[in-house]
Design a protein that fits this description.
By secondary structure, this protein is mainly alpha-helical. The protein is 65% helix and 0% strand. The longest helix is centred in the N-terminal third of the chain and has 30 residues, at 9-38. The relative contact order is 0.08.
Length: 99
């Protein structure tokens, strides 16, 4: 627990991103197992396989791109955090004019 509390924001974000990638990999293996288990029995009324290829059941690349799209949607910074950032910058003697 102490290690988590000692992380800075950049390290924390990397830790969160690693966890998201781990979750996507876990979903991949769960879907792969379901595909293998049901491949012989999962058929439509005509007798054709519903998921003839694994990519129809789970698209790994699409899951990764969804994660990247979600990451790119930057949320606006909380005004309190923005003010704190400006204060710390001013305290260090830096320039506060960002716009």
């Amino acid at each position: 627990m102490d290690q988590v509390l000692n992380l800075d924001m950049k390290e924390y974000r990397l830790l969160c991103e690693a966890q998201e990638l781990k979750n996507i990999d876990r979903q991949f293996w769960i879907h792969l197992q379901a595909f293998v288990n049901n491949k012989a029995t999962l058929r439509d009324r005509k007798g054709k396989l519903i998921y003839g290829r694994f990519e129809k059941l789970f698209d790994y690349e699409a899951a990764l791109s969804r994660k990247d799209r979600k990451k790119r949607q930057e949320k606006p910074m909380n005004p309190r955090l923005e003010n704190m950032k400006r204060f710390l910058k001013l305290r260090k003697g830096g320039n506060t004019s960002e716009q």
